[in-house]
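Protein 1 of 2
SEQ + STRUCT:
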Amino acid sequence: MFEHIERVPGDAILGLIEAFKKDANPQKVDLGVGVYRDAQGNTPVMRAVKEAEALLLKNETTKTYIGSHGDPGYGEVVLPMVLGEGSPVLEAGRASATQSPGGTGALRLAADFIAHHLPGKDIWVSDPTWPNHLGIFPAAGLTLHKYPYVDADNRLDFAGMLAALEEIPHGDVVLLHACCHNPTGFDLSREQWQQVLEVVRERGLLPLVDFAYQGFGEGLDEDAYGVRLLAEHLDEVIITSSCSKNFGIYCERTGCLIMVAKNAEQMENVRSQVAIVARENYSNPPAHGGAIVSEILHSAELAAIWREELTEMRDRINTLRRDFVEALAPYGLDQKYACVAEQRGMFSYTGLQPEQVDRLRDEFGIYMVRSGRANVAGFSHDNLAYLAKAIAAVN
C-alpha cells in the first residue's frame, strides 16, 4: 500500500546542518539553525534551569499524567509573565492557560480550535512568516492568506500591512508576531500596535498572537506590549507562548495556549473545548519542561538568576547586531545593512539574495537560509571580520 508514496525534499535547515558538518573550511560559520548560541557556538543549559532540575529530581514523587491543560502551577506563572502582574484580564478571569508541546503545539491547538468552532473563518499571516505557519494551519483545514510585511527594499512595510488588514473579511483570524518577528526581525512600534488594534477592532478580526521570543527583544515586559494591548482592549484574543527560547529548553517542548474571552463564564466554555482539542491531539503534554519553568518562577532566587541570564543573552545579540554593521563600514556597506542593527530577536532578514547566499556557502563556508535569513546568535566577535569580508565579496 506504500508503493505510491513519493519522497519529498528534506527540511532545508536540517539540510544546512548536514552540509555544515561536512564542510572542511576551518572558518565556516553556521547562521542557519534557529537556536541561541553563546560566544563558543554552544547552546548552553541555563544555570537557573540546572538548579531547578536538581530540585525536581530531589523532590519529584510521581510520573503520573498532568491533565490535558497541563500543570496548574505552570499556568500560574506563565499567565502573569505574558499578560503582566496585576493584569486586568487576569483579575477578571478572562484568560486561561493550556500547557502544550512547545509553541508549535500551541499553534496546532489554536488551529484545530478555530477549524472546529469558527467554521468558514480564514487565517491571514505575514509575508514572510515562520515557514511552519504555512504548514500548521492548512493541515488543520484552514484556508491561509498572506498580508504584506516587508517591502522590496527589505524594510518593514507597515503601510502595506495596515491596508491589507483593512480589507480582511469580518471575523477572520489574523496572525501577528508579538516581538522578534521570525524570520525578519522587524517589529512593530507601540504606535503601530495601536493602529493595528484599531483596525482589528473595527474589522471584527480575531488576533492570534505568536509569542515565541519573549525577553529576546527589549525585555520581558517591553516585548509583551502588543499582546497586553490587544488582550486588554479586545473581547477575544488567542496567544501562543513558548518557553523554549527564553528558558533555553528547546528539547523539552514547553509552550502554552492562552485563550482570552469576553468574560469568565465564556472563558470556562472555551476552556472546556480546548481540553477536548488537546486530548484529541496528544492527550497530555510532557511535564518536565513546564515543571522547570514553574520551579524557577515560583522561586524569587531562581527567577532572579533566570532574568539575569536572559538579559545577558538579549544584550549579547543586540550588541552583535550593532557590531556586525560596524564591521561592514570599511567596505562602505554599513548603511546598506543598517537594518540588521534595528531588528530584534535571533533572526535577521539581511536582504542578501539567494545567489549571494549560495556564494557565501560555496566560497566562504557561511551557511544561512536562501531567503537571506541569518541567525544573529551565530555571529561572534571572532567571526565578524570574516563575515564582513565575505559579504563584501558577494555584494
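Protein 2 of 2
SEQ + STRUCT:
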Amino acid sequence: MSNLADSSHASRPTIAWIGLGIMGSPMSENLIKAGYDVTGFTLERDKLDRLTAAGGTAAGSIAEAVRDADVVITMVPASPQVEAIAYGPDGILENARSGALLIDMSSITPQTSVDLAGAAKDKGIRVLDAPVSGGEAGAVEAVLSIMVGGEQADFDQAEPIFEALGKTIVLCGPHGSGQTVKAANQLIVAVNIQACAEAVVFLEKSGVDLRAALDVLNGGLAGSTVLTRKKDNFLNRDFKPGFRIDLHHKDMGIVTDAARNVGAALPVGAVVAQLVASLRTQGDGGLDHSALLRAVERLSGARV
C-alpha cells in the first residue's frame, strides 16, 4: 500500500507556487494535502513559514522556486504583479525550464493572459489562464469554480491539479477566455452583493427581523451563493476581507473595459462599478466586498 502511495506521489508533477495571499495560501496547502510537492515563493516571510508548516518548501526567489518545477502556479492581485513575476531576468519565463506548464490563477485582463501565453511560447513554456471564484471559503474548502483558457492538452494535464483545488472546472476557450469568464463572474457578484445590501437596509429600516428575512429570501428565487456566503457579514457587520473592495474595484475596471472593447453595454454594472469605486475612496478598500452595505447605509442615512 505504501509503495503504491509512494509511486503515485513520485509520478505527480512538482509544483512551484508564486503568491501566498488570502487565496494562495489555502490553495497551495490543499495541493500539499493531495500529495504534491510544492515549493513556494512570496514576499511575506510569515506566509512562507505557513507554507513550510503545512509541509511545503520555501524558496528564496522566483528563480529558485520555478527552476525544477514541472508546473508553475501564480496567484497574485492584478496584471502588473503578473507581469512583474513573469518577465525580466529574475522572472518565471527566464528561469522555468522549457516544457513547463505555467498556470496563472490570478484575475487579470484577458489581454495580459493572451500576451503572456505568446511570450511564454517563445520560451517553450505552455500557459493556462485559470482564474477562480469562491472566495477565501471556497479556497479553504477546495470547492472553487475554476474557469480556464488555453489548449485542451494543457488543460487535460492540469485537471488533476485543479481537482485538488476546486469543484467546477471548465475549459472556456483559447487563451484569455478564463479571464473573460472571470470578468463576467465579478460583474454578477458585484451586482448581486449590491442588491443584497440594498435589501438589507430596506428590511432593517422597515423593522423586519433581518435574520428571518434573509433565511426565507435565500430559500426562494432570490437565493444565491452570494447571499449564502455573505449573509453573516451583513448580519454581523463583519467585513474582514475574504475578497477586498480594492480587488473588486480592479475587476470592475477589467469588465467595463473589456465590455467596451467588444461593444457590450453594462448599464447596471457601470453603476455598481461607480459604487465600488466610491466605497474605496471613502477608505473602505481594505474591507470585504460585502461592505457595499456601508455605501447603501451612507446613502440611506443609516448606521455605518
